[in-house]
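Form 12-C: Joint structure prediction
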Amino acid sequence: MARIKLPTVLRPHVGGSAVVEVEGRTVGEVFTALVERYPSLEPQLGGDGGLPVFVNVFLDDEDIRYLDGLDTPVDDDAEITILPAVAGG
Amino acid sequence: MGEVVVVPAAIREAMVAHARAARPEEACGLLAGDAEGRLVFCYPTTNILRSATNYTIDPTEHFRALRHAESRGWELVGAFHSHPHTEPFPSPTDVELAAEPDWIYVIVGLADPDRPVVRGFRIVDGEVTEVALRGER
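Section 2 - Result
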């Protein structure tokens, strides 16, 4: 199962945990399973249209934008880190 | 009395130096805290927008800072950025995009570059509350 590390802002949606474990063969499948388990995450992670631009996702040490995005394959011992964009004016 | 956060001199200097170096563009970075919540480290980062009016922290540098902080038992507890020409108060964009309710958002105001003004804020559900920043004793 992939380990997903969540930023503080998303932890209330998963009962306060910093890490959750979810099955999936790709990053997209992992996110689908995550949202099925915790539906209130859906607006934060986007629906079928892919990830919102204000969310960054790292598979182990790589930004998935530089891999195959949501189609990137996920190993059983993978660690996925979700980071909200830090931005302002 | 409101919240008070101690900002070690080295961290204040690092934020101001990064802000000055980036001027006229906005500078940005991240702040780490230890298990007791004390500010312990500052990560100057790249503003990928290269803009005088907006910033976005380079996501890869954000990730590296997170890994570095975690390897030392710290957490990322805040972000800083500069207002190169205006007062260090959160802009509507700052308020709209503040994602982390637990973070401290520090702004370095360089309206007068010789007299930087550093202020800190919590931004929760669109509401801005100033945090008193105090130097180390």
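Section 3 - Comments
Chain B has a mean pLDDT of 96. Chain B touches chain A through 28 residues (CB under 8 Å).
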